[in-house]
Design brief:
Layout (H helix, E strand, L loop, with lengths): L1 E3 L3 H8 L3 E7 L4 H16 L5 E7 L4 H6 L7 E6 L2 E7 L4 H8 L2
Parallel strand pairs: 1-3, 2-3
Antiparallel strand pairs: 2-4, 4-5
C-alpha cells in the first residue's frame, strides 16, 4: 500500500511498526517521477514482501523532510520498527531498488 503523508504525527505512526519505505519527493522532480511507477509496480506485485510505502512531498511536509535533513530528492529511507536502517539518494533501476528494499 502506498500512503501520502503530510502530518508529522501520522508519519510517526506509519513508520513505527514493520518494514516501511519512505519516499521523499517533489511533484516537479524528474527523477522522482521516474521512480514513482517503479514503487507502484513493486507495491502492486508485493515484490518486497510486507512493505508499506509512505510518500512525503517535501514541499507540503517540510517539517518531516527537515527532521531527516533531506536536501536531495528523491531520498529513500527504509525503516524497520521505527528505526531508519538504510538510506539511498536519487533514482535507481528496479533491480537495484529491490536489492535496497530486501536488506
Amino acid at each position: 500500500m502506498i500512503i501520502h503523508v503530510t502530518d508529522i504525527n501520522e508519519f510517526n505512526e506509519k513508520i513505527s511498526k514493520g518494514k516501511v519505505l519512505v519516499d521523499f519527493y517533489a511533484t516537479w522532480c524528474g527523477p522522482c517521477k521516474m521512480l514513482a511507477p517503479l514503487l507502484e509496480e513493486i507495491d502492486e506485485r508485493k515484490e518486497a514482501g510486507d512493505l508499506l510505502i509512505v510518500k512525503v512531498d517535501v514541499d507540503e511536509a517540510g517539517i518531516i523532510a527537515a527532521r531527516f535533513g533531506i536536501q536531495s530528492i528523491p531520498t529513500l529511507i527504509l525503516f524497520k520498527d521505527g528505526k531508519g536502517v538504510s538510506q539511498a539518494l536519487g533514482y535507481m533501476p528496479k533491480p537495484q531498488l529491490l536489492s535496497f528494499l530486501n536488506k
